[in-house]
Amino acid sequence: MMDSMLDRILRWAIARIVSHGNLTVVTPAGTRLTFGDGTGEPVTVRLTDRAAAIALLMDPDMRLGELYMDKRFVVEQGSIYAFVHLILREAQNQSHPLPARLIDRARAALRRFRLRNLPGRSKRNVAHHYDLDGRLYNLFLDADRQYSCAYFEYAGQSLEDAQVAKKRHIIAKLRIGPQHRVLDIGSGWGGLACSISDAGAAEVRGVTLSEEQLAFARERPKGGAEGRVHFDLIDYRSVQGRFDRIVSVGMFEHVGLAYYETFFRTAGRLLADDGVMLLHTIGCSAEPGFTTPWLDKYIFPGGYIPSLSEILPAIERAGLIVTDVEVLRLHYAETLKAWRERFLARWDDAKALYDERFCRMWEYYLAAAEVAFRCEDLVVFQIQLAKSNKTLPLTRDYIGAEHPPVAAKFTSVETPLGSAA
């Protein structure tokens, strides 16, 4: 009786979402439920036990990833990417079941209170993800270890070229000059800071909270940037001095909603009166929401994807001027696709570093993130800021004009900077 009722509930819940595609769900009782119109890649998944099925129905945002990691949600045909893509593509115009909607509302209401990223907590959150074994990142990133959205200028562009294009685009927007002191907030493994130095900056200071990234950045070959690039383990709130240019790529997602005003007031304090800042962050093109709880627990604790409506008021209160906003739409989907394919190709190497459960977790992370950028409202914002409306040219033509000379000054990143062995 319980099995037949659970089968009926599963059929009802999934049928409300899936009307196209080719999905088969094998229930814990062994019943094969089919959904869609039979078109497209066939996907077959199996729930191994009643508790797994109930958990998925009650809280899919949290439990799907956990069940996949624990082999209680098994993909028998297709891939976890194909399943998530089918569901989210179909769910765009559908509402979640009532229990899931109530949980979503509670999470959205509590988002500001949960994201209290004080300095100590911020460092622990960063360590959770960025202080993993560096060999893991060598498995799927480009040679320069750019761990943020690439900039794809044309179809079929390689990940390496698209990451160079991303750096070139950012540096062009900053209008780097030979006298400039530059601050890179959240400098990662140091690739952007070195490229900024190669582009002509007098001095570049990168700050990070990741000890592993700091060690790599300090030891990496710097070419022409040697002596002009420095990296420090320090919270952005503790940085002192004045900088002609400030850049922050892929770090703002970790600031925490309650600290947006602190972030921009700090940037305003550090930025010269004629300075320029470029913020590159994942964003939400819809109204504010909440961080997917699975992502918060397993991948990016303390992370949050903001809407423009949450960022802009903090900028205004800090006394900074928004001089340009560019929205990169599907660039991150293509970046994640490249990372996912590279990771899957090196699965055995990742398993040797950690274990199979970790590999399944990482696969789900890359797959779900890619689908979110393809089917939901995730984008990347590049927000250019200044203190004076006279600092930058009146048109955006200078950005394209800066690209060729900036590219010519870059050092090569063709040789991998670390061993994946």
Topology:
Layout: H1 2-15, E1 23-26, E2 32-35, E3 43-47, H2 50-58, H3 60-69, E4 73-77, H4 80-91, H5 98-109, H6 111-114, H7 119-130, H8 134-138, H9 159-174, E5 181-185, H10 191-198, E6 203-208, H11 211-219, E7 229-233, E8 243-249, H12 260-270, E9 271-284, H13 293-298, H14 308-317, E10 321-328, H15 331-345, H16 347-353, H17 356-375, E11 378-386, H18 397-409
Parallel strand pairs: 1-3, 5-6, 5-8, 6-7, 8-9
Antiparallel strand pairs: 1-2, 3-4, 9-11, 10-11
Helix pairs in contact: 1-2, 2-3, 3-17, 4-17, 9-18, 12-14, 15-17
Write a structural description.
The structure is a single chain. This protein has 421 residues and is of the alpha/beta class. The chain has two domains: 2-101, Nonspecific Lipid-transfer Protein, Chain A (2-Layer Sandwich), CATH 3.30.1050; 119-409, Rossmann fold, CATH 3.40.50. It has 18 helices and eleven strands. The chain has helices at 2-15, 50-58, 60-69, 80-91, 98-109, 111-114, 119-130, 134-138, 159-174, 191-198, 211-219, 260-270, 293-298, 308-317, 331-345, 347-353, 356-375, 397-409; strands at 23-26, 32-35, 43-47, 73-77, 181-185, 203-208, 229-233, 243-249, 271-284, 321-328, 378-386. Strands 7-6-5-8-9-11-10 form a seven-stranded mixed sheet, sandwiched between helices. Strand 6, helix 11 (211-219) and strand 7 (229-233) form a beta-alpha-beta unit. Helix 1 (2-15) packs parallel to helix 2, helix 2 (50-58) packs antiparallel against helix 3 (60-69) and helix 4 packs parallel to helix 17. The radius of gyration is 23 Å and the shape is elongated. The model is unreliable at 412-421 (pLDDT under 50).
